[in-house]
Amino acid sequence: MAMGQPVRLVLDASLLLEPSATGEAAAVALRPGAEALLRRLRYSNLSVAISYVDGMSTNESGFLEMVTSSHSFGYIPLLAKSGDCSPNDLMLEWSRTSSCFYMTSRVDKGLISELRNHNWRVVSVGNECSIEVPGVLNVGRLQELLLTLATLIKREIGDSSVLVIGYVMKQSREEDFARRGAFPIYPSKDGLIFVPLSFELPLSSQLQEVDTVLHKITDEILKIDPNCSIDFPKGISFSSGMSEIIRFVEEHPDICIIDQFKNIYPLLDRLQIQNILVQLQELGTEGKTKLRAPYSLKVDNFHDGELDKHIAEANLSFPLIVKPQVACGVSDAHNMALVFQIEEFSNLSVPLPAVLQEYIDHGSKIFKFYVIGDKVFHAVRNSMPNASLLKPSSGGEPLTFNSLKTLPVATKEQQLQTRVQDSKSVDTDLVEEAAKFLKELLGLTIFGFDVVVQEGTGDHVIVDLNYLPSFKEVPDSVAVPAFWDAIRQTYESKRGKAQT
């Protein structure tokens, strides 16, 4: 099939419904793995339909109609007429204009032979569907279908430049990327096909089928020992699936990973992030806007009798924002506090070791920058108000929050009080220079960082750095093509280096 030719996928109802769902009064349910399959196909850029045959119960038929409607799929009769093995006219018409795939777990040799005669590609699923028909591919489990489909599509395109990208990330992040069209199974304009790697199946066989692996390794962290943070990844415990991928990559160093695990480990540790950002001073030019890291201090004990002395030596003054040294991957990595005086450390609940960081008055505006390959994007978001507006509400206690959930964003009234800052614009040329510097330094394809502009001095301070953010503030029409370009460019660059 040529690029641009539509792909039609028909899923037989037998593939989706539990075999026990029979009879008018029987409860109807999806097979394990069917919901995940349907969810991923919804945003696949494929034309998907679910087929049925006469004789289904009212419960089954109604259930399937509900499923197809919720996922915007077609719902079609499989046979031309009851008792006949010939496909319906619509399926025959599709075969003249599209590349068509039929997937089933139901044994019907006559139907399958007819479909094969009309150039349909047939995949059977499950040991109970061992069909001895030439050209039929049999797979053991439902979870294998997406990777099987992806490899079949690539094979039929017959273009070696088409890449199959296997990805690993948590469901909420995957759904966000997929919903925005970033994970098509039908090849993107850059010739990329995206499929999830399943931890329910042997990973070695899956990894051998994909051209490269895109991952959000931090989604698979179970535990981090901060005492080992200087020597990541020794102090990190990953899920069993991620651990298997890490072992595979160690044994097969030629596999293309986006991005190398070792390049991401420093971003798990706020102290290492600080050491990275300090190097931005190399970009400083006299007479121009200053770009810098926030002043900070590592602490292992909030009850240190000389803590106030250490704070002063680190060029810090109150208020201070207190962050766990572990930056991501664990549940309490984003539990933080704003501390206004030394006494407030006595009952502080932020995990140790921690990093004390200057709180920068920034007019309630934060600039989120995204580096996607060679392109840099940014967006402006409301942020925490200036310290003078926060202190009255603290009641003499540290102001605690989770930066992902309960960040104290400035109210409209507080924003009006700092509207002078709103009129300031960030020096994008300076920050884009920093983005290129960090890209080279980190060796990452896609990452993000947050910039605040300090009131009074105008200093541009980078306060956070993270790998593979969602870049949801960037319009999909711009961000998604940049995302595809970045993956292809990184793949070709790494393949080129491997072959020299």
Describe the structure.
By secondary structure, the chain is of the alpha/beta class. It has helices spanning 13-16, 34-42, 58-70, 89-97, 109-117, 145-157, 171-179, 203-207, 240-251, 261-264, 270-278, 307-313, 387-390, 412-417, 419-422, 428-442, 476-499; strands at 7-12, 47-52, 74-77, 99-104, 121-125, 137-139, 163-168, 192-196, 212-215, 221-224, 236-238, 256-258, 291-292, 296-299, 320-324, 335-339, 354-358, 365-372, 375-382, 399-402, 446-453, 460-467. 31% of the residues lie in helices and 22% in strands. The strands form five sheets. It has a six-stranded parallel β-sheet with strand order 3-2-1-4-5-6, with helices on both faces. The chain has a five-stranded mixed β-sheet with strand order 13-22-21-18-19. The longest helix is centred in the last third of the chain and has 24 residues, at 476-499. It is elongated and about 85 Å long.
According to DSSP, the number of beta strands is 22
What's the number of helices?
17
Contiguous uncertain segments of 5+ residues:
none
Determine the mean pLDDT: 87
Biggest sheet, open or closed, and with what strands and sense? Answer: 6 strands, parallel
- Structural class by sheet pairing and helices: alpha/beta
Radius of gyration: 27 Å
% residues in beta strands: 15-25%
Instruction: State the shape.
Output: elongated
Task: Provide the spatial order of strands within the biggest beta sheet.
Answer: 3-2-1-4-5-6
